[in-house]
Write a structure and sequence with these properties.
heterodimer; A: 334 residues; mainly alpha; elongated; disordered N terminus; disordered C terminus; B: 327 residues; globular
Amino acid sequence: MTTLSGAGGAVGPVDVAGRPVDRPGGPSAPLPRRRRAKFLRAVSHNRKATAGALLLAFFLVLAIFPGEIAPYNGQAEIFQPALGPSSAHWFGTTAYGQDILSQLIWGTRQSLIIAFAVGALATAVSVVVGVSAAYLRGAWDGVLSLFTDVLLVIPIFPLIIVIAAYLKNAGTVVIIIVLGALGWSYGARQLRSQVLSMRDREFLEAARVRGERRGYIIAVEILPTLTSLIVASFLGTAVYAVLTAAGLQFVGLGDPNLQSWGTMLYWAENNEALGAGMPLWALLPGVCVALLGAALALLNYAFDEVSNPALRPVRIRARKAEKLTPTPQRAVDA
Amino acid sequence: MRFVLRRLGFFVVTLWAAISLNFLLPRLMPGNPALAMMAQFRGRVNGQALKALEIAFGVNTHQSTLSAYFSYFGDVFTGHFGISLTFFPDPVSREVLQALPWTLGLVGVTTVLAFLLGTLIGLVSGWRRGGKLDSILPPVFVVTSAFPYFWVGLVAVWVFAYKLNWFPENGGYGVTDQIGLDWHFVGDVLEHSVLPAATLLVTAIGAWILTMRNTVITVLAEDYVRMARAKGLKQWTVMWGYAGRNAILPNLTGFAMSLGFVVSGAILVEYVFNYPGVGWMLLQAVENEDYGLMQALFLLITVAVLVAILFSDILTAVLDPRTRELR
């Protein structure tokens, strides 16, 4: 899955009916346990993955210990308003006299909670729907797939706006539930087509012949082979959740008293921060949202490369190949 | 043909689902917030407009939910969405139709541009894999596509409108303009659309590049590409006629899929730039608790996206014979 998954317009390989299909080479080749160490090493050797993981770790630390890291209480309106950057206030203060740096640090937690909770919720739903659709076949498959497809093409963001408008000042939990309930369709599609493609493999046939129960087959035989797809779906949905939640709060559909990046943007926009000489107030929360989104997207991109060898950066392999046989193709590319 | 019929059927089902959703939402929400809106209309609106709103929000109706449901479908298909609170006393349908061309122009042109540019860059970087272009552009655009649309918009406003003063900071046209089809007005509209369009373009293009690049890489390994090379065809011919032509299909289908995404982004971008399109109006409606306008806009956006998807499905069927034989 590429970075844009979720948010109603997942873009990735899709078949003629607009449904995601497996990548050539398959993003989720079964991953036996002894190869897992190799897999982890591949992630740590991948520059994109390392960058993404470091960024994410940075935000995690901020989210877990904001009280220890932030210089002030982010909400306290105790300073002179609209100060520029200084050693006391690295990024200056807001029009209400709050320290911008502290607000950013305290706001991290909410974004991460939304990212992980929505990612987990939506991925769980997509696993249940996708796998059962593919495994149960027949009418169940028809109903579940239709449901998934409909949700896939209805523009989700306007729908979320409408729902949020009815719910008024949605808090974190409401946002998580709404985003999770509407963001699972792309993952479900991918999982379904992946399970469909391996439904008749021998190892599943063997399990069936052994007389294993359906639940056992799904949990023990099928799910482990879907690991990388599930991870990709989780990361993709998390990016979508971070962006969408920030967007909702930015336009004033969140709880304005929450400490979050989106709410900061909302207040900055309300006070015309850009024109009023406090550009950092409006720009930095967006930088944080973008960085968190980029961290997750980079991890996702790297996972794609790790699990799909066809997409890995070409250099190392190319050099080796050149040494062995200068194939016509290499000559062309060089 | 069967494929097209299937997609047409799906279109109808989705449309039905969207309209039903629109009908159910106000009834499912706690406390029916539309009541407050209806109270403001009391004594000021009557006749068919009031009736349409009552049906839409389940207020004052003496009919059962089921018959209200059918009446609602009637209202939707005849374009009776009641009166707008924000633009009182204009009917919702008129306001909605006024906003539509702005969004269609902005989103339409940007999406087509993003598609063309992204596909081109993706083709070239997949073709020269590991080359200069490939090692710079795809990663850069992967990162930019994780940026929030509205934030890119804010940065654009700050840099190009406040600091450099190159473009107007917001609006769809100058405040003093006469709306009409003269050169001055058209030029002004174009000038106002540069920043929002660039914002959408920067954030939307990454997906095209990535999909196209990855498909090209896969296609290049196919036998027919090797064959074309072995035949000694010109590089140019192989790249466009063999690799590009086959790799473009997933991107074409992605075109439809991305539309929902671009529309979502456009809502926020229009909000940032106060661009008088559908998204801006939707948020205006939300702010003013104008639920009738809000729901009509949601329906309009959904229909627009669905039509675009249907269109791209049919196009794919025309271009790719495999889909015609499918199922």
